[in-house]
Amino acid sequence: KKNICVLISGTGTNLQALMDACDAGRIDGSISAVISNNADAFGLERARNAGIKTHCLSHKDFASRDDYDLALGDLLAQYDADCIVLAGFMRILTPEFVARFSGKLLNIHPSLLPKYRGLHTHQRAIENKDTEHGVSVHYVTPELDGGPVIVQSRVPVFDDDTVEDLAERVSEQELRIYPLVVKWFCEGRLAMKENKAVFDNEILPETGYA
Ligand code: GAR
């Protein structure tokens, strides 16, 4: 079984989907720790209720981003994680942190990257009158939301969509694709080579797109 650490800042719906997939044996891994930069993150409660070890490491307690990322890295190193899953972890990571865990860091971002890096992605898609929006799971590299994409899922944008409508439609896809990618990762069927995501050949049919 692979050892997974999950980093969160908020509600933790993606965390919940990963916990469920591990519990059900769909992911050949177990979550050894959930770490949040925000003590009020509801995701911490989800983890505690499931008996998973939690840590709150507040960025407010550190003088600089470098100091914070060093402490976060040291905490993660204690768990010797095979896979570090960013699930709504709303922090920019230093290049040093990313290099320390290179190839093990996954992120989910609510847009069809490379479109809409950063914040307020749903609002930007609506304002730009996009007809299509979605979510990307990608490897983390030092470039913010710029690492190689592993999987994307697309959703339509309707004329009368509010930000909440669109967020809900995207969220459904998040909860579907993140556990799938973590499953592949834990099975060793996924790697990052020369800044590209590489799959083994059997994965494509499982996505339903092949
Ligand atoms: C998710 O929509 C995720 O895509 C987004 O935060 C939300 C976390 O929700 N991540 C980012 O915006 C990263 N830049 P959750 O706490 O319910 O999983």
Automatic annotation (TrEMBL):
Keyword Methyltransferase: no
Keyword list, A-Z: Purine biosynthesis, Transferase
Residues binding (6R)-10-formyltetrahydrofolate, per UniProt: R65, M90, R91, I92, L93, N107
Site (Raises pKa of active site His): D145
Any one GO BP annotation for this protein: 'de novo' IMP biosynthetic process
Pathway: Purine metabolism; IMP biosynthesis via de novo pathway; N(2)-formyl-N(1)-(5-phospho-D-ribosyl)glycinamide from N(1)-(5-phospho-D-ribosyl)glycinamide (10-formyl THF route): step 1/1
First and last residue of the signal peptide: none
Protein known as: Phosphoribosylglycinamide formyltransferase
Gene: purN
